[in-house]
Amino acid sequence: MALDLRPGERVYQEIKQAILSGEFVILQRLDIDKLAAQFGVSATPVRYGLAILAAERLVKLNSSRVYQVAFWSEQELRELYQWRQRLTKWALQSYVPEAAPAMSPDADYAGVYLTVMGHIDRNANTEARRAGRSADERLQQALRAEDDALPGALDELHRIAALLDRGGAPLANKLRRYFDRRISHCALIRSAAHAKAMPNNGA
How far is Cα 36 from Cα 135, in angstroms, rounded to an integer? Predict the structure, then answer.
């Protein structure tokens, strides 16, 4: 009889959403039995979901063979920003200038970032869009820290959004400076992300 993967898919999606929303924070232990009880399933769907999330590098096994929400090293975070910068540069090659989608004045930093980057990526090919989404998912915990670690971070995004209907060199230059700033401040962003997670990570 074929294994019914639907419970595993549901658990995978729920754990992933908890990570992306910040409910599960960096380095938080993900106990399989507790998650199974929380989601009303056996341990098997939880293991299935965690295995997929490990492949997506959103969780990892620590030295005690316990799953934790992933926390990048400074070098890993730098390389992740560099990768997202390259993906954005490629997306600009097919970008068709158009005004940014309407954004709520109360939108948080991560929400504005995802709206702006999604708008830039919209004309890229399927693989590039998928790679961009994957990078942004891995950056979620950093995005929540950027607004604290980098003064004026939200204003930077709004200035980028204001150039979306113009495109060309002004937009490309603004995006280059945006990512260069983060690449050069990875240690600060990582430290801020760790500080935000410390009270709740169960480590």
Answer: 28
- The end-to-end CA distance of the chain, in Å, is 40
Q: What is the pTM of this model?
A: 0.89
Place of tokens 């942004």: 136
DSSP assigned state of 59? E
pLDDT in tens, 49-74: 999 999 999 999 987 889 999 999 99
Identify whether the C-beta of residue 200 lies closer than 8 Å to the C-beta of residue 25. Answer: yes
Q: Are 36 and 42 in contact (CB under 8 A)?
A: yes
CA distance 39 to 35: 6
Q: Which amino acid is at 40?
A: G
Task: Extract the runs of DSSP E, i.e. beta strands, from 26-66.
Answer: 59-61
Question: Tell me: the pLDDT tens digits for 72-124?
Answer: 999 999 999 999 999 999 999 999 999 988 888 788 999 999 999 999 999 99
With residue 69 as reference, give the H or E element that holds it: strand 67-69
